[in-house]
Amino acid sequence: MSPPIALRDDELHEVLQADRMVPHDLRQVYLERLAVELRGREILGPGLVHAVAYQVARAVTWDAGRAAMTA
Fold it and tell me: What is the pTM of this model?
């Protein structure tokens, strides 16, 4: 298991805001993908976390929508 990513309050706020657009049953997927994207970055900051969190949230939501359309 990888070590947790340390986020400041303002960065965590961005993660939680983006989380709102993800269906409840996909939130774990969202958080896992977000951790992969953020891990290894030397400098985070609320702007970067915002951009990455919303990018991942959109991707997770889009993938779920596409899967539902093809099922």
Answer: 0.82
